[in-house]
Amino acid sequence: MSQPNSILGISNSYSFELHFIIIIVLGSSSLPCCFVLQSYAKILLFPAVTMVDEAPFRAREKLIEKQRLFQSIHKHTHLKGPVDKITSVAIPLALAGSSLFLIGRGIYNMSHGIGKKE
């Protein structure tokens, strides 16, 4: 079984050389060298430090409150949000109406010979 700081089963004594080679190869490719150096700096400089979980975007209490709110509403799933009537009903109806109008106008113009090239 490999150690936590080893890469692909390679022991820690060789990991610095492996990362140095990866930085040289990736630094000369289309990726910017600073991106590669930043992504490998933690592994090279701080191999004993483990990554800490980042803070959530929203507090758990807020998420649970929103979940209870949305689960208590007895509407269809696509109509539960505050502007879902606009995005799920009005916009598709407007697109369908305008496309039917354009199709009807095209049929009318073709049947009456409007826009026909001589």
TrEMBL record:
A single GO cellular-component term on record: mitochondrial inner membrane
Subcellular localization(s) per the UniProt record: Mitochondrion inner membrane
Protein's UniProt keywords contain Signal: no
Principal subcellular localisation of the protein: mitochondrion
A Pfam family matched in the record: COX7a
Sorted UniProt keywords: Membrane, Mitochondrion, Mitochondrion inner membrane, Transmembrane, Transmembrane helix
Residues that span the membrane, as ranges: 20-41, 89-108
The protein, known as: Uncharacterized protein
Protein source organism: Helianthus annuus
